[in-house]
Fold DUF218 domain-containing protein.
Amino acid sequence: MPKFALFRKRELWFPTIWGGLFFLILLIIGSVFLLKQLAVLLASNAPVADRTYLVVEGWQEEDSLLSALAVFNAEGYQYMITTGGPNRRFLNPTHASYAEQAGDFMLHQGLPAEKLIIIPAPESAQERTYLSAVLVRDWLTLKGESLDELNVHTSHVHARRTRYLYQQAFKDVKIGIYAAAPQSFQLKQWWKTSEGAKSVITELIGNVWVVCCFYPGEPGSHYERWAVEKSGQSSDPR
């Protein structure tokens, strides 16, 4: 009969000093490589095949909007949807929302009005990109559209977060992404400029947050649009 015991002797293998140094060097090399490729990973282009609608995030700079228009024309899309909430960059903006601002820009660049759909978002506590995705989804549902795929155009390192949030809103619809190239820094040398470092680090933090902490709410719920519950309803059930 085995003796009752609270502890048992075990052997555990540890690397030697040279072995530990070897693995440390590998870790450093891998980390440096990953950091150098970080902007490229965040700004990856991965469009899907459907060419019915191209969603364009309206807050982008003019060079990125021109990139979106070039994609629209070159790829033969049927309709462009511009999105975005209230313009917070100026005290007295010329347009009520980024969606309307981008739409007006596209019209001035020669986009036919019958091919343009403007879907502005209201002021809300909800994550702005996600709210725009929800409004696009609901508009398509209202029009009786049933899509298997949908492409979105955004600005360089924001691409991975945009794609993730649209995928959260659309669930079974496969989301593709276009990322306009940055004009103020190079993706493969992002750390060499303050603009590049700020953009990449901000987006890295944003991506970590949406993956680990973002709660979208149930589809069709009040929370999904406003990030707050109606009076009398329970909050985040997690």
In short: The mean pLDDT is 94. The first strand starts at residue 53 and ends at 57.
